[in-house]
Design goal:
D-Maltodextrin-Binding Protein, domain 2, 3-stranded antiparallel β-sheet, disordered N terminus
Length: 346
């Protein structure tokens, strides 16, 4: 450096050029840790922006920034980092920090939530959420975290469980679904449920589902009402049977090692924000579901049918058979006595 300056001032370069060089050198030297204290987290959602699930992630990001005074920042990417299984794998590997996955799709990585997949386990959606927050739910969460290396932040709700949607045939009773190909998640509970009704359950990845419906590869599917319009499924199905037969929640999680690497202050800000986001998101989902279902008919032209108590009882009649089938397929993984206690306690 000293010799360089000597060469410059010794006449090898004009004085003006030396001054410019000196200024640029000063500019290039960091003058302080301007953004060094800000920790950035990349988060992926499996929904488009504007659904109750994505709104919950937005609320989490807002609260985290607020509670950390801007030193912990979550940036959400909507359906840009892979479908749920890919997104979960990315968070497990650490290439993405925060992600989401339904309890059903989590079955590819852990059997922690298998009991919650059982059809007609909860008489109301609210009862299902209460169970997730109970000691039974906490035990499942501990197993989920152990099996995946993820840290659960909170559990989201879409305000209701699964209904059944069909392309060309209205459903009222189980006899109406016999022989129909229904897109399902590839879980023992989904497969056993639709087989018990006489349908042909057909596992198809979510990214291929719209095309499969459009081309008639399948005759229907089973979705929570909230996702139908944002995913444009109303363009390829005509009927929705309000059945609410299966509990579906969305697990919001962070890579376990990433969480451990955060400062205690950032960990607290994240978990406090997650608890507040959970309450806000669930209230939002519950308040929106009636309007969502109404819009399926009035805005999107679908035919929505609410079964009578007698019709509902026909659908629910498969409950014990399906529970036993799933338990037989997964020995030691489904505590039927616990499931029965949960059901009877409501």
């Amino acid at each position: 450096m000293k010799s360089t300056i000597s060469n410059l001032v010794g006449g090898r370069l004009p004085l003006a050029l030396f001054v410019v060089w000196s200024v640029l050198a000063l500019i290039s030297v960091p003058i302080g840790p301007v953004d060094a204290a800000v920790v950035q987290l990349r988060a992926g959602t499996s929904d488009v922006k504007g659904t109750t699930l994505s709104d919950g992630m937005d609320k989490l990001a807002e609260l985290v920034k607020q509670k950390s005074n801007g030193t912990l920042v979550i940036t959400n990417f909507y359906q840009a980092l892979g479908v749920e299984q890919q997104l979960t794998q990315s968070v497990m590997s650490g290439s993405v920090d925060v992600g989401m996955c339904s309890n059903g799709n989590a079955g590819r990585f852990t059997d922690a939530f298998v009991p919650f997949d059982l059809p007609f386990l909860f008489k109301t959606h609210a009862a299902g959420l209460k169970a997730f927050d109970s000691s039974v739910g906490r035990t499942a969460v501990e197993k989920f975290e152990k099996d995946t290396g993820l840290k659960l932040l909170f559990v989201e709700s879409q305000g209701a469980g699964r209904d059944i949607q069909t392309r060309a045939k209205a459903l009222r009773v189980p006899a109406d679904i016999k022989g129909l190909k229904i897109r399902v998640v590839s879980t023992p509970a989904d497969l056993a449920t639709f087989k018990a009704w006489g349908a042909n359950p057909t596992p198809i990845d979510w990214g291929q589902t719209y095309t499969a419906l459009q081309q008639g590869v399948v005759d229907g599917l089973q979705l929570v009402p909230d996702i139908i319009a944002p995913a444009k499924i109303h363009e390829v199905v005509k009927y929705n049977l309000r059945l609410n037969y299966q509990m579906v929640v969305q697990l919001i999680f962070i890579n376990g090692k990433k969480f451990a690497s955060l400062s205690p202050e950032h960990q607290k800000a994240l978990m406090d924000a997650a608890e507040e986001a959970k309450v806000w998101q669930r209230n939002n989902g519950a308040s929106r579901i009636a309007k969502v279902v109404e819009d399926l008919a009035n805005v999107h032209g679908m035919k929505v049918y609410e079964p009578t108590p007698a019709e509902y009882a026909e659908w629910a009649a498969v409950r014990e058979k399906v529970w036993e089938d799933v338990s037989a397929q997964m020995p030691g993984k489904v505590d039927l006595s616990l499931a029965k206690r949960l059901y009877e306690s409501q």
